[in-house]
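Handoff note, outgoing to incoming analyst
You'll be picking up this chain. Sequence as last confirmed:
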Amino acid sequence: MNNDNIDIFSNMRVIESYKSYLLSAVADLFATMSKGGAAGMDEIVEELADITMLSYLLGKRLGVNYAAIDDKILKKLKLGVLEENNIEKEYQDYSKLISYIRDGREL
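Most recent structure output, in case you need it:
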């Protein structure tokens, strides 16, 4: 077996690991949210951070660079603003996230 095959198999193992971790993180978030008032905000933030981080890492392993993910997120948010969906109309969640991504971390 040559080095290319070893790299492909190694990459496949990492991808499968990230997929499992991502699924587990989503399940953990749902379990935490189902606890209701007993769910700690720190735990929710931890799980959301895991989901976000694993999404970027999985994308990178699949050949998608981080900037492409960011660009796609911005495009989807802008589309949500243009479509004036109910959530955006009432809460401006999409617009606020666009500002956060573009302008920095203060909101």
